[in-house]
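Ticket #4471: structure output looks truncated?

Reporter: J.K.
Steps to reproduce: submitted the chain below (69 residues) through the standard prediction queue, then opened the result file.
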Amino acid sequence: MMEDARIAATGTIDEEAIKKGKLDEFQAQIDATNSVYADRLAQSRVQGQGRLGTGTAMQARGGLLGSDF
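Returned output as attached by the reporter:
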């Protein structure tokens, strides 16, 4: 324990390793956010297709599809 503290206090600081570690953390957060929004977009697309199908069915039932009027 004391040896680790002495090494940390007197050792050299690897700035590149720190930067890489932070960049990796940020990228992980970005990837997680993108995943959440991709899931939400997929759900919205499915719901939109359902609404389109319902609207088409209502128009067909009402005689609006295939009609000249």
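Triage note (M.O.): checked the attachment and the full token line is present. The mean pLDDT is 82.
Status: closed, working as intended.
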